[in-house]
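To fix ideas, we reproduce below a protein record of this kind.
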Amino acid sequence: MVGSWEQFFEQINNITVKLTPGCNLKCSYCNVEAAGPKTPIMAIERFKQIADLIIKNSTSHFVGLEFHGGEPLLLPDEWFEEAVTYARSLGREHKKIVDMPMVTNGTMLTEKRLNKLLDLKIRVCVSCDGPPELNDELRGGGERVARALNLLQRRQVGKGVITVMTQSNWNRMPEVMDWFHEIGVNDFMINFLQPQGRGVAGDLLSGEQMFEGMREVFEHMHRNNMAVHEAEVTSRIERFARGRDKPAPLACHEFQCQAGRSYIAIDTFGTVHPCGSDVMSHRIGHLDTPFSDNQYQNMLAKLHDKGDWILRCFDCNAKQICNHSCPTSDKNSEDFRDHDCLGTKMLWDYFCQNADRVYEVYAMYLERQEELERRRLVLREEAMKAREAELGEVGGA
């Protein structure tokens, strides 16, 4: 039995912190139905309360506080400076590594703001659905997003890119990936449009469209020697080639996910939710009220109950590469679950029919990972030497 917020946070290692419900764009599929830019922002004391709870109580040595929204860059640089300084200082005190990434639409990212984020060691992930004219169809701000990606590339900064596959771009993936390669984006991750927020009323992809979009991504990686790497297709290739991890971890792509278990989201006002993908339909509680284990256990049971529908999965060969859909999306739309199921089965059949080529891409991936690991070791060694030199200067003074 979980008796308090402090005890609850012992199991949590990652939090999506919804800094504001506001945004300077109005994406047609926004999963939080973000309002205009003149909306409340999270009080710095609220953030410090969240940082206290996870850093002081989590049993994990590594904890994450992800800046999210809305659009997090609506908050001033001074807010981030105080938040990061506080969390990192607390992390050192409790011997925790505190990771603080940011997911942004990129439209407000200037060189000055990027310098501040880099000084604070905030990793930047940009949402981008393709070239400016394509990005503008459902999101807007395409030229400013391209400017942000170019800015990150010029600074040779490690970055993440998230692309939502929609009715606008599912059949244009080669064009998207060619453009990414042209501007220096070598890695990205695809999310299907989800029935969450404004996406509930959106035009969901069919199973066939999901498959065709992902097939084109695979073909592009194979044809271009993985010049642009997409994480979702690659994870399915890896599972096809070597099977699933056992025992399976709690993760978005596993039978049981981490929502409400080791990962949570907290909105601008302190309400705690099991997942950042849907902060409307599920609720664990509020940080300013006593923790209710009864409410928490009931929420978990309802959210993660897959029902009789899941019986079809046990004898399905495609379960080897399946992501088992998303519980928050499934609760909002049974159609999404069925479409995702069909798309996965079609991709499995395609992999089986093209196994030699799948293994070729898998070999490219392994070679790429080895090169990345070599680079990481070099950077780590350089950082250690710089740190030793810094300590030497301090000692000499």
Q: What stands out?
A: The mean pLDDT is 92.
